[in-house]
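Incident log, structure service

09:12 report received: a user says their structure output differs between two submissions of the same chain.
09:20 pulled the input from the user's history:
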Amino acid sequence: MHAISPGEVGDAWRSLGQRLPRPDVVLIASAHWETALPMLTGSARPETIHDFGGFPPALYDILYPAAGKPDLAAKAVGLLKDAGITAGVDGCRGLDHGAWVPLRWMYPDAHIPVVQISVSPARGTAHHVALGRALAPLREAGVLIIGSGHATHNLRDWMLGHGPGGRSPVEPLPYAAAFAHWLEARLAAHDEAALIDYRDQAPDAQRAHPTEEHYLPLLVAYGAAGPAPDVERVVDGYENGALSRDSFLFGAAA
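09:34 re-ran on a clean worker, output below:
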């Protein structure tokens, strides 16, 4: 719904697009593309995928016509191979809403090429940190690396708060707040071991993330920032009490 009713989150995305150096390419890990092995989009003209149902018709009319960057996808596969990570390129896959919704507000002209990378929940959390680390050299080549997921993601509890129509800020559910506070503290402390072992260490991790795909993109972005990155929270708040909107900007430590 942020695609048509962006609210404070959209304002934050706009601000980031204006504040950050304009990248040559965006590489974005989305929770909405799950594969057994890491895959990257290799289409020169990726389609806009409307991978959702039951939402207002206006959402299905939105197109985000950014170009792809096949040579960047191939370079990323090479970096992953050098790190011992087998990956591939999907020449047909387009951009799902985990990619085009935030980019619609960050770069509304859609003039920056976009490559999407999948997440692989079966490969675990440490894999996704390693994935980001392997891709870190791309930052020096003008690539902005983004992880698009959710700080907490319990859709059942979100629907109990009235789903798409209940997006105005409300008091967070206690478990969502506890997990979000833990996450911010572990990021600030550069506690990579805890971030990887969050299932056992974080409060109410199973309820905050009944499945892992929305947590994993964060680890890709964190890994890509290098050791002990600067951490800045750029979005906060909750939707229907259940979905923490906390978002973080990672920069190389001075």
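09:41 both user submissions now match this output. Likely a transient worker issue. Closing.
09:42 reviewer note: The radius of gyration is 17 Å. The chain has a mean pLDDT of 94.
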